[in-house]
Recover the amino acids of this structure.
């Protein structure tokens, strides 16, 4: 049986409607968009830099790119195309392509984790106008953005999370969320689509938080007998970190029937101790959470892994956007010029390499 193939990005771009009139087109839309991606991956973060990078391509590369008569698009052509391209269709096609790559991949963990978190585009605002905001969904193991959804002015992350979840494939996947999204409606939406959730519990759910605190800080032997425990540690970047996670299924009936939390599989408490080795500083923090995964599906060490990898949305997603692609420095706030936002290039760069290996 032949191995399933992943489309190249050039093929993906061929499915995008060209916003230009047919008369006078000199460069195919797929060639322009592919050239922009290549330039961005090469570190060119402005339209002028992109156009200059394309001008430096040799004849063979221009032909492979699909440029007609060996000519590359000008700065103004690139600007007009990016302003006119259908952002919704483009984002949908890129998301479908990421799913194709993930379908061929072999994740190192039994559960594919998807972190959902918001981001402020700081450069798009000033004293008079608030900055734009987006809600992102990132794949833990691959560091790839699946979806980037704009948050309308006057709304917030919680106001669009249902729409974001609706646009994701969640069957057999675990959605990890910060405390803002620890809401019964969010949990129900994830379960309805066949997914699983890992939610952090803070003060915005006082009754739930109080219940977990009472159990995990209660006196033994009851809590000790009914609680699973696992410890682990990491070293790196001049610090030593120890994790201790305790989980229990004893509270499931109470949380489900009395507090109305859907699909509860276990509650957990994570103690994190960090020591800065040079300074000798020590910090201890305690975190609480809930998940619909059972103790058999997610034993303590696996649950801790899902909880920790949630923050890859910051390390592999937002940090890359700000540091590599300098997203926060962009002043654009209208139309579709910041293509890196639509294309989720931190994921595209790595996934393109993965797709290339699959295609060979």
């Amino acid at each position: 049986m032949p191995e399933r193939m992943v489309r190249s990005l050039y093929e993906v771009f061929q499915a995008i409607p060209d916003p230009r009139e047919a008369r006078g087109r000199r460069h195919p839309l797929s060639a322009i968009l592919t050239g922009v991606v290549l330039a961005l991956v090469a570190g060119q973060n402005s339209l002028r830099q992109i156009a200059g990078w394309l001008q430096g391509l040799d004849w063979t590369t221009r032909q492979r790119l699909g440029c007609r008569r060996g000519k590359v698009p000008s700065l103004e052509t690139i600007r007009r195309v990016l302003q006119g391209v259908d952002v919704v269709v483009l984002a949908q096609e890129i998301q479908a392509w990421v799913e194709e790559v993930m379908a061929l991949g072999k994740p190192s963990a039994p559960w594919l984790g998807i972190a959902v978190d918001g981001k402020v585009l700081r450069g798009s605002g000033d004293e008079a106008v608030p900055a734009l905001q987006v809600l992102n969904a990132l794949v833990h193991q691959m560091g790839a953005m699946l979806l980037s959804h704009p948050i309308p002015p006057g709304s917030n992350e919680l106001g669009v999370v249902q729409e974001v979840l609706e646009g994701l494939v969640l069957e057999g996947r675990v959605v990890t969320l910060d405390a803002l999204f620890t809401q019964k409606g969010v949990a129900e939406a994830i379960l309805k689509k066949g997914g699983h959730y890992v939610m952090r519990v803070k003060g915005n759910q006082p009754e739930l938080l109080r219940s977990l605190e009472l159990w995990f800080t209660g006196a033994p032997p009851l809590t000790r007998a009914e609680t699973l425990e696992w410890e682990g540690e990491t070293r790196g970047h001049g610090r030593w970190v120890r994790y201790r996670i305790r989980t229990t299924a004893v509270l499931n009936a109470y949380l489900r029937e009395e507090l109305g939390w859907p699909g509860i599989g276990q509650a957990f408490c994570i103690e994190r101790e960090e020591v800065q080795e040079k300074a000798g500083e020590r910090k201890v923090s305690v975190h609480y959470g809930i998940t619909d995964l059972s103790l058999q599906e997610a034993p303590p060490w696996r649950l801790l892994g899902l909880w920790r990898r949630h923050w890859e949305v910051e390390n592999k997603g937002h940090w890359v956007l700000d540091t590599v692609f300098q997203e926060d420095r962009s002043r654009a706030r209208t139309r579709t010029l910041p293509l890196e936002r639509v294309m989720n290039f931190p994921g595209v760069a790595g996934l393109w390499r993965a797709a290339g290996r699959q295609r060979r």
